[in-house]
Amino acid sequence: MAAEMLSAAGANVHVYDAMPSAGRKFLLAGLGGLNLTHAEPFETFITRFGSRSSACASWLKDFDAAAIRAWVTGLGLDTFVGSSQRVFPTDMKAAPLLRAWLHRLRHPKHGQPVTFHMRHRWHGALQRDANTPHDAPTFTLQFDTPQGPQTVQADAVMLALGGGSWSKVGSDGAWQPWLRSLGLDVSPLRPSNCGFDVQGPHGANGAMGTTGWSSHLSSQFAGAPLKSVVLSFTDSLGHSFSRRGEFVVTSTGIEGSLVYAVSAWLREEIERHGRATLFLNLKPDFTPERVQAEVAHPRGARSLSSHLKSRLNLTPLHMALLHEVLSKEDLHDPFQLAVAIQHLPITLASPRPLDEAISSAGGVRLEDLNTDLMVKSLPGVFVAGEMLDWEAPTGGYLLSACLASGRLAGLGAARHLLGEAALGETVLGPL
Ligand SMILES: Cc1cc2nc3c(=O)[nH]c(=O)nc-3n(C[C@H](O)[C@H](O)[C@H](O)COP(=O)(O)OP(=O)(O)OC[C@H]3O[C@@H](n4cnc5c(N)ncnc54)[C@H](O)[C@@H]3O)c2cc1C
Question: Could you tell me the distance, in angstroms and rounded to a whole number, from the CA of residue 309 to the centre of ligand 1?
């Protein structure tokens, strides 16, 4: 998006990427339907960025959900708003959109074509020559390429290296120490929208602490979805989350949309206290009195699981979770059992590794950047996308903020290189 702004303004733009082709994580996002943005009102939309709401709002105010949809239309594709207000391309695929976008970048109707250099891995060297005459190159960068090291000179540099998840698609977060050595304040990358490992059955007793489910739950139910449950969590700072949805039980813990929605708070609670306990209501449509009555109903010769299956429609996965958490005595105490069905504590020990997460928290601190996302201490160097220090839940907010920050930084870089006049309506018309 930054390249698009710069090319439209008339700059000579070269994109260098370590991977063999462009937009691999964008394509990966397409496997889940490519949730581009969210159609809720802007005032609600920006609250999803938590403590970075006001900074992200300043990027998104000029490139909001409606603008993103118009941009997709400009590329010859359509979008639709799903039942949850999430916005997708009509075919829910990333490849056609990426193809059309790359084609337009390479062959723009206005402005300069963008040149792509794939398999060019920047390894952090960025020299700034402050003494060159005004029209001479200002920065020297080095890339590793299959043909050997390449040196490139540029008047401005846009860093959009992504976060640290799914490194196989290119974003490995290796830039963190490099940018620190250039004097930037980088908050360590951490998993966001991630799964968690649960505290093992004996973990609460300290010395015997393990992570992961019992071998029974893990071998029988890893990969099974838990649908229509309410997940509640209150952290030690008093923030409360409670939402109905679904997630998946993994071999060592939990992951999925409902978990991602509260993952930032869970991660931070674990950072503070070494663990975080959430509660599940497995029967949110039942009153506590009804659950008590059904559990206490005489069960005759039936096993506990067939009794709970017939009275409350509890599944084998529900039963396995109850077995995981309750002692034998509590399991056979109708009162304790009924309480647990609607308030089942699940203690989490750690987030899954960053590489498995949907996105990263942390990154280049916004305080080091001006309002155009230019590094204050390195005029001419801009930063955009997930490598900036913000985070948001899934729902289209990630791509929205990446696109909007890229657009803002691209316009800033164009202004830096070519002056305000280059940003006229005519030049940016096709966008
Ligand atoms: C499985 C999955 C599904 C997702 N689904 C969605 C979704 O539906 N909706 C949504 O909003 N978001 C989604 N996201 C998140 C979204 O894809 C990212 O937030 C977004 O792509 C980040 O864009 P970016 O341009 O900042 O970084 P990236 O897309 O990661 O691009 C960074 C680029 O920099 C290159 N690079 C990195 N280091 C170097 C180097 N040293 N030298 C040269 N090149 C380098 C990489 O090769 C890469 O091409 C998903 C993420 C994942 C993992």
Answer: 44
